[in-house]
Amino acid sequence: SYSSGDKVASLNMDSSEFVSRCMMRLLAYQGKLMADILPQLLVNIVDCIKAVVESPKSPSFNHYLFELLGVCMRNISNGDSLDALVLPVLIGILEKSVTDFIPYSLQLLALRLDTLTSRNELYDKLFIHLIDAKTWHGPVSIIPGIVRLCSSFFKQHQLFQHTISTHLKQVFERFQFCLGHRRLQSTISFDLLGDLVRFLPFNWYSQYLTALANLLLSKSQEWNRIGDHQTILRVISTLSIIIIKKPMDLMPEHSLIHILDTLQSGLSSLFFGKVVFPTLLKASLSPRSKHTQH
């Protein structure tokens, strides 16, 4: 029986990876039936994570330790105590740039944020750190995790209205950074932009639409010239969301068509006629397998 919690307190730096692996699978199977031991187990896991951050063990041990933490986070009911215990450790990993553990930290923070029901100032500080330029200039491999966490913030924007709305300029700058990166421009950059326009209120980002449209049109010309129709499809998808999200009661000058024609008279007709419709036609005539990634 694990009802007393005594037996789960044995996880430590001398444990085999199979201990954390077994505990993870047991907890994943039992779920909330083991709720009485979760608080003590969580303290034990956090202590171990603090230790491996300072002195990493084998990659397998580290992996299952964070996996075990994730399973605990999914099943624990007291969110406030969870945040008080776990957030400082996970955010500390990001702030200290502990490269090996950053992907785990980003994933677990997104997991927690997706279920958040009340505001916590630690998350406000986390978002500000997350969109800092220095955070994005680390290993390219961590950028997808950063974008995933940004998306979780966008979904929960009601809880962080002031923090997100006053830092959107930096978010668009991070999008521009991804757009200029060869490995990120056709995928991650549009994941970030797409979630921004999909989940945030239109009026939060409407002031940036002219600059955004100018940038996307310029890049679309390059992509159209080299035949990169997949990326142009991402542009079309994003612009379609913006058109749909625009409230009907806003004046016409807030529309995307008006913005395009403000940049250059007749630009909207030119863009749709020379880029959008031909790209959509080519996509419809191409094998489906090539266009199911996004």
Q: How would you sum up this structure, described in words?
A:
The chain is mainly α and 294 residues long. It is built from 16 helices and no strands.
Which keywords apply here?
294 residues, mainly alpha, elongated
Distance from first to last alpha carbon = 47 Å
Uncertain stretches: 1-9, 289-294
Beta percentage is under 5%
Number of helices: 16
Assign a percent range to the helix content.
Answer: 55-70%
**What structural class results from the helix and strand content?**
mainly alpha
What does the average pLDDT come to? 83
User: The biggest beta sheet, please?
Assistant: none
Number of DSSP-assigned strands = 0
Taking Cα atoms only, what radius of gyration do you get, to the nearest Å? 23 Å
Order of helices and strands: HHHHHHHHHHHHHHHH
- Gross morphology: elongated
Counting copies of identical and different chains, the oligomeric state is single chain
